[in-house]
Amino acid sequence: MDIKPFLNRIYLSSPTMHKEELVYMKEAYETNWVSTVGKNIDEIEKMMCEKIGCKYAVALSSGTSALHMAIKLSGVKSGDKVFCSDVTFSATVNPILYEGGIPIFIDTEYETWNMDPLALERAFKLYPEVKVVVLANLYGVPAKLDEIVDVCNKYGATIIEDSAESMGATYKGIQTGTFGKYNAISFNGNKIITGSTGGMFLTNDKLSAEKVRKWSTQSRENAKWYQHEELGYNYRMSNIVAGVVRGQIPYLDEHIEKKKKIYMKYKEGFKDIPVSMNPYIENIMEPNFWLSCLIIDKDAMCKQVRSDNEALYIKEKGKSCPTEILEVLEKYNVEGRPIWKPMHMQPMYRMNDFVKRDDISVDVGADIFDRGLCLPSDIKMTEDEQDIIIKLIVDCFK
Ligand SMILES: *Cc1c(COP(=O)(O)O)cnc(C)c1O
């Protein structure tokens, strides 16, 4: 079969609009509520509380700003150490540094590709003074939340749950974004639903939600003039952006269903080649399947070397590697991506500690980064297109 490059690029995960987004944006425009106050904002805060099952939601300009507010609320001060997921997007970590905190990265486990509770427990033995843990649910798969919550309770630490990638995923029937004292979700353009940008802070704590409302609108005090007692931020969401979010929220479940179908189709398509999909623990968790990823069996990896900005491999019969697969996909106008490079391997964190379990010697995050990759998971991709992508990948192992 002669496969030609796709005329229209197939993306990892791009925004999928319906129609209602425009209705609510237009409503904001026509009623002149185009700034950071308005009905769309009020509505989406209510809708998300209902969907996720939390008491308070504050709409903000991004998921990162929600995480920043969470870090401030948990009292992180200059020089404080904070435990943090290692295989994640940099936005999980950046807010720790905004407040002068020092992230300590906790290694990953193979069953969900999230923070390893055993490595976390070890970290508390090494650094008993740590009081805050920032936990991400990678690619829409919940972490081992019961175990993580237990360890944090045992050591009296506050959890900040970064559910930017996992909105709509559940753990034992409970939505992610509720396991931390403070939680963040994101409406960035590549997420499961989007506002073009935007994010939300979620909590059950009334005072914290009030603080975030105040801080995110420049910390204005109740006075006739601009009166300030605290540092402020310009972090509130626009009512126009909120209009997009309002149009998208009713489609969250449909998007999840489509993402799951994509994941299952890849899984079936790869059953005869030496790879597996990004894992989750069945019967305990239901991911939102935001990104489908694969990991190549150890003995099916051809030689691959990566520097800070380049990758090379040596082709071997019957074997492949993420670099080869990504090159093939690119040749056919398909977007794939390496696994998020672990934070402990990032040059900017070379001085930060990285805590692994003491009973295994392998660096799990580095291993998943080495052997794994993110597959195109766009819900506008057709089944025929996905069939071709599967064939391209299967052929890499010939
Ligand atoms: C996208 C993302 C964020 C940041 O969200 P923004 O809305 O883009 O600021 C934070 N953490 C993770 C894990 C993400 O994937």
TrEMBL record:
Species classification: Bacteria, Bacillati, Bacillota, Clostridia, Lachnospirales
Source organism (scientific name): Candidatus Fimicola merdigallinarum
Annotated protein name in UniProt: Aminotransferase class I/II-fold pyridoxal phosphate-dependent enzyme
An MF annotation (GO) of this entry: pyridoxal phosphate binding
Sequence similarity: Belongs to the DegT/DnrJ/EryC1 family.
Keywords: Aminotransferase, Pyridoxal phosphate, Transferase
One Pfam family cited in the UniProt record for this chain: DegT_DnrJ_EryC1
Gene3D superfamilies from the UniProt entry: Aspartate Aminotransferase, domain 1, Type I PLP-dependent aspartate aminotransferase-like (Major domain)
Active-site feature positions: K191
A biological process from GO: polysaccharide biosynthetic process
Modified positions (N6-(pyridoxal phosphate)lysine) in chain numbering: K191
CDD domains, per the entry: AHBA_syn (cd00616)
